[in-house]
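Reopening this ticket.

The earlier resolution said the output was attached, but the attachment link was broken on my side. Pasting everything inline this time so it's all in one place.
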Amino acid sequence: MTTRWTAVLAVAGAAAMSGCAGSGDPHEGGFITGVTNLMSGGYQQRIDQRQAEVASLGAEQQQLQARADAIRQEQAQVDRQLASARARLSQLDRRIAALRARVSGDDAAKLDEAERRLSQARNKANEASDRGKSATERAADVADLQQVLDSVGGLVDSIARTSPTS
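Inline output:
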């Protein structure tokens, strides 16, 4: 009979052990699960998995940082172009004011048109100053601004060539 009890206890122990195994989480299970995971390498697998996740997140963070740096560089480039355009706008304002005293008639009407276009250019400069826009959108606004300034510059140059000098 003792053999029978030994067999029953062995089967009951095996059943109990198999019921405890299965979770690789050290917070779950108990002593038997912990020993089983230690012996089977379950904990090491868990550590390896977590380290791989950390490495992957580190690589992703580096990629995001590189993209953020590129965006900051693009924004800085747009800011420099915008500052240059604003300086050009101010220069055209001064040239128009200087020409205003020397011209009359058709040239005065052309200067009025140039001032109207400069007003549009100021609005475009304000749009390009919006930091809520992407660098690409701001760069497009600056390109539009440059075209308006080129047009106004050409108009002012033609008025300056035809107007009498004082």
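Reporter confirms the inline version is readable. The chain has a mean pLDDT of 84. The chain is about 85% helix and 0% strand.
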